[in-house]
Structures are given as structure tokens and as C-alpha cells.
């Protein structure tokens, strides 16, 4: 049995715990022992993206220390996974003692759908039927991690009918603090995204990123249901 | 000055302008599709981009040497070369050249560099009338507007708006639905200008060191009119617009047209190597090449050096989701879009352009399409770090970020703050969303999620 440390991400912990709960259930159903290191808080991405490097470094070091004892780290978030896997080695690259530890964490960190399909080759016990889903590629996950197929693969394995929107990798408009610094531009971007999603006739718009999810839900109202892939995939456990 | 608020305000105007949104969406979509198609036609576009990135980096590593070779060869071909450190130096020099030749009318072929040095203002102040001869540039000149796109300066205008501008210029109504009539009128009017001009001013798409030549690409032929009809031609180039050899220029031109408009090559590619020789039937008697620094050399050997690899194709603008909503005018300088957000702080100072590095979600679409694979998102992050260091972000953000990071580094404190916030938010909760009074609401019409009644870690303690 594989032992997996869950990086739940601060947004999931504080605002959308149901995504974390679904992630635990999925990993357990896929045969993993799940551990939740309680010292974890935030990966530091909001600070890094805003130019607050010392703050980002401090949180990066905390996160590295919290996850060092484990063999695999899984996060239900494309952008936080990117932070751990791509940005930590950059951020701590010239820090004696930390550069090596950052690279070690990077090498064993996975995004949830990537871990399920590519590491575990997971197939759900039951399959969902008759639900049409469009998948929104979150920017960091598809461009910096190159993960376009795993979330789609996982959704298909769970039985969902996947439909593609016109520009699945067009940014949803979140961008962390960008969404409050420039709300007009941010919301206009989200509106475009939602229009492209509803054009597909999908019942649900899925994403692997809690940030995108929060952003799109904020404007979607009754137009389209927006779900995290973890909760969609967990639905297949009891379909 | 372009602060976050300036960008926001201008962008909001563009978003509210349905006509402009339609024009922007149509034009950028056309450019995007063209680029995708044109690059797919190459045997290995990605390999060519990798090669080109290496060529650009290697050229910048020995920039001074290549520029000196260029100067020697340009002088040998009979051109005159001028080195200008600042925008003012360059504008003063070109205005003096016009005066020296008694020019009253200057024809110009699209050049962002002359836009950057405010050349038209300087010429007008010296009583020389500048006329833009690129159709798009001419349109915005008639509208008294700055360009809104690096290669499609009038991208934000509809056909109806263009017809209205041209009608005013010719003094009779022109039909908005007949592009043939509109372009024929433009051609007729501009021909008169070409013949009457005392000086022709152009930009430089690429300069070739091994022969001292400058290369100009256009789709309307106006470039060759500007550089060959008037008796004097002045070409203005940034120091970075150089390649050592024609082989490198070929890669540049192949990627430029494909990335910009989706063409295998632009319709006209003019090569200028010195003035007309005795045996030439036409051509300028004098060619002046202005080599402009204006802050560019500061980028060398800095985290922003890669920005100098840009060949101004505009591909990053066309894919940028922020540009596509905000339009080019929000950027408040000739260089809009993602690359503009890197270049403008370099040229005009990050203090003056502090809003631009913030005008991005760091989505990375620009990096996907850049022919030189310039890592724009990474440089945006660098600018943001510089802004924090130089205290260019508001005090409440600095305090807020530092406070938040401190709380997040102490899980017990986080638990306490969370409890207080969860109690506090009850005052503003409706249907599970936080509803703040309009003025205090940070996200416009977007709903904000509430803190969960129980965080994940509490669930975990019971279900581990």
C-alpha cells in the first residue's frame, strides 16, 4: 500500500474542505494510506506571484520541512503543485541547504489526477453515466506542468462524457491578487470563459484548480455548475 | 504614468465599448489562426524557434561588437550612422536633419521606435508635418490616437469608423462597406504625400551587421516609397534590432511574418544598403541610420535581458487574455500586451509604469507563442519583486501581505484568526456568499466565497 501525504492547499482547507475530503476518499479508494501533515499551511504562491519573495521563501521552507518525511505528496490543485514542483527549486535555488531539499520535494509531488491516472493507473469501482462535462485547463497545470491529458483521462475513466470548449486553456481570469487588483478585467475574462463553457452544452464545468473554481463560481450563478475534479471523481465511488 | 488604477480605468472603458471589443476579438482571432496555420506549415517550427532563441541570445551577448561591425559596413556603403542615447537626442537629431534639408513634409513608414521617442510631436513643433503612410498608422493619426497594437495599430477600429475618418479627410462621404473605394482613396492621398515629402522616416525590422543593411517589411509597399522617393531617408533602430549575418536575418524574417500575420513572408521586404549609387535610377541621396539606446542597454546582463530578444511580432498580444479584454490603450505607451509590460518599465522606468507588471494573471499563453521563447511570465515576476523592493505597491498591500504570511507561518495563530474571521463574516453572509457593500467589495460583481463552517483539518482530526 502506498503512503501518500496530502497537501490540501490553504484555499481547500479554509474555504472548500469538501474538495479535500473527496481527495482523501479517492486516494483511499485507490488503495493509498493517506497522511495529513498538520504543520502545513500555504505553499506561498500568493506571495511569490506578488513579488514578496522573503515571505514566499519562508512558507516554502515550512512546506518542505512538513513534507520531507514522506515518499509522495499529492495536491488537488494544479497551481499549488506547480509552486512546489517548478517554483520552489527556482525560489530556493541559491539557498545553501535548501536547494537540494526543494528539488527532492519537487521530484515527489504530484497533482491529484496525474497521481491517480499515471502513477496508480486508477480505475474507479463504479462509473458515472449521462453527465456531460467540459474541462477547463488551469494555466499553470497545462503550461508549466504539461498536464492536459490526466484530468481528462480521469474524468473519462470515471464515466463522464467529455466535451471540449473552444479555448479550454484560456485563462479564467483569476490570477490570485490580479482578480482583486483589476476586477473589471478579471471579471470580463471570466465571462468569456463561462460563455465558451456554456456554448458546449455541458452540464458541468470541471477544473483541477480551487482558485479557478472560486473565480468562475463567483460569476457563474445559475448558468453552469462548476466542480472540482476531485468531487466529480469521488462521485464515481458511489455512482 | 500607468499605475494599476490607470490601467484599470482605461481597461474598464475598453470593456464597456462593445464595438471595440468586437473589433479586438475579430482581429486577434484572425492573427491567432493565421499564426497557428503558418507555423504548422514549417517542417519543425519548434526547432526553428529554439534555434532562433539561441541566435538572439548569442547576438546580445556580443551586442557592441555586432553594432560596430554594422556601423563600419553601413559607412562603407555610404550611409551615415548616428548613435543616440536618449529619446530626446534622437528626436532632436532627426528634426535637425529635416530642417537641414528644408523639409516641410515627412512621410513615415510604421515605426514603434519613432512612436517611443515622440518624433511626430518633435517634428510638428519644428514645423515639419509628419504623415504616417502605413494604412493602420494613418487611420490612428487621423483619429489623433496612439497605436493599440504592435503590428495592427488600428486593430481596435471598425470599418465604419475608418470610413468616417477618411470621409472627413477627403471632404465627401465614403461608403463604409466598400473596402476597395476606401483603400483607393487612401492610396491616392498618400501618393501625393510621397511625391511632395522632403524626408522619409522609417523604422528598422532587422539590421544585418555583415553588410550594414537595414531591412524593412510591409504589406502595403509604403515602406519602399518612404525609403526611395524622398531625397533623404532616416531609419531608426533600437540597439537590439541586429543580427550578425543574412542567415540569421532569414530566420528572423521567417518567424516574424508567420508569428505576426500568419504570412510565410510579408508582401514587401525592402533591403537598404546605403544611398542610391550613381547608376541607380532612383533612391535617396542620403541615408541616415539612427541607433537608439533609450534605456535598452540597462537590460543587458540583467534579469530582463531576454526582453531584448523581442522582434515585435505581436503574437503575445493576440493570445493574451488580458490584452484581449483591455485593449492596447490601457498600456499607456506604444508597447502594449505582455511584452509591453516588460519593455515599457525598462524604457520609461518601472516607477512610471508600475501598473503594467500587475496586468497579468501569469497564464503563460505569451510564452507558448513567442518566436524567441522569451519567458515573459518570469520577467513579470521579476518586475513585481522589484516593485515590492522599491515600495511601489501601496502600503496596505505591503502590510497585508506580510501579516498574512506571518499568520500562515504559524498554524495556531491561523486557527485563531480563522475563528475570528468565521464569526465576523456572519454579518455579511447571504446564501453562503459574502456580500459586502458595493464600495468595499473588492471583486466587482463577482461573489466571494465564505470561509467553510469547518476547515478541512477539523474533519481530518475526526476521520484520520
From TrEMBL, chain A:
InterPro entries noted in UniProt: Cys_rich_dom
Coiled-coil region: none
Pfam families for the chain: CCG
Domain of life where this protein originates: Bacteria
GO molecular function: oxidoreductase activity
One of the record's GO cellular component terms: cytosol
Residue ranges constituting the Cysteine-rich domain according to the UniProt record: 4-85, 133-217
Name this protein carries in UniProt: Cysteine-rich domain-containing protein
TrEMBL record, chain B:
Record's keyword terms, sorted: 4Fe-4S, Electron transport, Iron, Iron-sulfur, Metal-binding, Repeat, Transport
GO BP term, pick one: lactate metabolic process
SUPFAM superfamilies referenced in this protein's UniProt entry, alphabetically: alpha-helical ferredoxin, NagB/RpiA/CoA transferase-like
GO molecular function: 4 iron, 4 sulfur cluster binding; metal ion binding
Residue ranges constituting the 4Fe-4S ferredoxin-type domain according to the UniProt record: 301-322
Keyword Lipid biosynthesis applies: no
The name this protein goes by in its record: 4Fe-4S ferredoxin-type domain-containing protein
One Pfam family named in its UniProt record: LUD_dom
Cross-referenced PANTHER family: LACTATE UTILIZATION PROTEIN B (PTHR47153:SF2)
Amino acid at each position: 500500500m502506498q503512503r501518500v501525504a496530502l497537501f490540501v492547499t490553504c484555499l481547500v482547507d479554509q474555504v472548500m474542505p469538501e474538495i479535500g475530503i473527496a481527495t482523501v476518499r479517492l486516494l483511499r479508494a485507490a488503495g493509498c494510506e493517506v497522511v495529513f501533515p498538520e504543520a502545513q499551511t500555504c505553499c506561498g504562491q500568493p506571495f511569490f506571484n506578488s513579488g514578496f519573495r522573503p515571505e514566499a521563501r519562508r512558507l516554502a521552507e515550512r512546506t518542505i520541512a512538513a513534507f520531507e518525511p514522506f515518499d509522495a505528496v499529492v495536491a488537488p490543485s494544479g497551481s499549488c503543485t506547480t509552486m512546489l514542483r517548478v517554483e520552489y527549486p527556482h525560489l530556493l535555488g541559491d539557498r545553501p541547504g535548501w536547494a537540494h531539499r526543494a528539488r527532492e520535494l519537487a521530484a515527489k509531488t504530484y497533482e491529484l489526477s496525474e497521481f491517480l491516472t499515471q502513477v496508480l493507473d486508477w480505475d474507479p469501482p463504479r462509473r458515472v453515466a449521462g453527465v456531460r462535462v467540459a474541462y477547463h485547463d488551469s494555466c499553470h497545470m497545462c503550461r508549466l506542468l504539461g498536464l492536459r491529458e490526466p484530468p481528462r483521462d480521469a474524468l473519462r475513466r470515471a464515466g463522464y462524457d467529455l466535451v471540449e470548449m473552444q479555448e479550454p486553456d484560456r485563462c479564467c481570469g483569476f490570477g490570485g491578487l490580479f482578480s482583486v487588483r483589476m476586477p473589471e478585467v478579471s471579471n470580463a475574462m471570466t465571462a468569456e470563459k463561462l460563455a465558451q463553457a456554456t456554448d458546449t452544452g455541458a452540464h458541468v464545468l470541471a477544473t483541477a484548480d480551487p482558485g479557478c473554481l472560486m473565480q468562475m463560481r463567483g460569476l457563474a450563478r445559475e448558468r453552469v455548475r462548476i466542480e472540482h475534479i476531485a468531487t466529480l471523481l469521488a462521485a464515481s465511488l458511489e455512482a | 504614468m500607468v499605475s494599476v488604477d490607470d490601467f484599470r480605468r482605461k481597461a474598464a472603458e475598453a470593456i464597456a465599448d462593445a464595438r471595440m471589443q468586437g473589433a479586438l476579438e475579430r482581429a486577434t482571432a484572425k492573427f491567432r489562426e493565421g499564426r497557428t496555420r503558418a507555423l504548422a506549415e514549417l517542417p519543425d517550427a519548434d526547432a526553428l524557434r529554439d534555434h532562433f532563441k539561441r541566435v538572439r541570445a548569442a547576438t546580445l551577448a556580443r551586442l557592441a561588437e555586432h553594432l560596430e561591425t554594422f556601423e563600419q559596413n553601413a559607412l562603407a556603403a555610404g550611409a551615415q550612422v548616428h548613435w543616440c542615447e536618449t529619446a530626446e537626442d534622437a528626436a532632436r537629431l532627426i528634426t535637425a536633419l529635416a530642417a537641414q534639408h528644408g523639409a516641410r513634409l515627412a512621410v513615415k513608414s510604421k515605426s514603434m521606435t519613432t512612436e517611443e521617442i515622440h518624433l511626430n510631436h518633435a517634428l510638428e513643433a519644428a514645423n515639419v508635418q509628419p504623415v504616417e503612410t502605413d494604412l493602420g498608422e494613418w487611420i490612428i493619426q487621423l483619429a489623433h490616437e496612439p497605436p493599440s497594437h504592435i503590428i495592427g495599430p488600428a486593430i481596435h477600429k471598425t470599418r465604419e469608423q475608418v470610413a468616417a475618418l477618411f470621409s472627413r479627410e477627403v471632404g465627401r462621404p465614403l461608403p463604409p462597406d466598400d473596402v476597395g473605394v476606401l483603400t483607393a482613396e487612401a492610396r491616392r492621398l498618400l501618393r501625393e504625400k510621397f511625391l511632395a515629402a522632403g524626408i522619409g522616416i522609417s523604422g528598422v525590422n532587422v539590421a544585418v551587421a555583415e553588410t550594414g543593411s537595414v531591412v524593412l517589411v510591409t504589406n502595403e509597399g509604403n515602406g519602399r516609397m518612404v525609403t526611395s522617393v524622398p531625397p533623404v531617408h532616416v531609419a531608426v533602430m533600437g540597439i537590439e534590432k541586429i543580427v550578425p549575418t543574412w542567415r540569421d536575418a532569414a530566420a528572423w524574417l521567417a518567424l516574424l511574418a508567420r508569428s505576426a500575420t500568419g504570412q510565410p513572408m510579408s508582401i514587401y521586404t525592402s533591403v537598404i544598403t546605403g544611398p542610391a549609387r550613381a547608376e541607380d535610377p532612383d533612391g535617396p541621396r542620403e541615408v541616415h541610420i539612427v541607433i537608439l539606446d533609450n534605456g535598452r542597454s540597462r537590460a543587458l546582463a540583467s534579469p530582463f535581458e531576454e526582453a531584448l530578444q523581442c522582434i515585435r511580432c505581436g503574437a503575445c498580444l493576440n493570445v493574451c487574455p488580458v490584452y484581449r479584454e483591455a485593449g492596447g490603450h490601457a498600456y499607456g505607451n506604444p508597447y502594449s500586451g505582455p511584452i509591453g509590460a516588460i519593455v515599457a518599465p525598462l524604457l520609461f522606468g518601472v516607477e512610471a509604469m508600475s501598473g503594467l507588471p500587475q496586468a497579468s494573471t501569469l497564464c503563460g499563453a505569451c510564452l507558448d507563442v513567442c518566436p524567441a521563447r522569451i519567458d515573459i511570465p518570469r520577467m513579470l515576476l521579476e518586475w513585481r519583486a522589484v516593485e515590492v523592493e522599491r515600495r511601489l505597491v501601496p502600503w496596505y498591500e505591503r502590510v497585508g501581505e506580510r501579516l498574512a504570511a506571518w499568520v500562515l507561518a504559524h498554524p495556531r495563530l491561523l486557527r485563531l484568526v480563522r475563528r475570528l474571521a468565521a464569526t465576523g463574516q456572519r454579518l455579511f453572509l447571504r446564501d453562503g456568499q459574502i456580500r459586502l457593500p458595493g464600495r468595499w467589495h473588492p471583486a466587482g460583481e463577482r461573489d466571494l466565497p465564505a470561509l467553510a463552517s469547518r476547515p478541512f483539518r477539523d474533519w481530518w482530526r475526526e476521520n484520520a
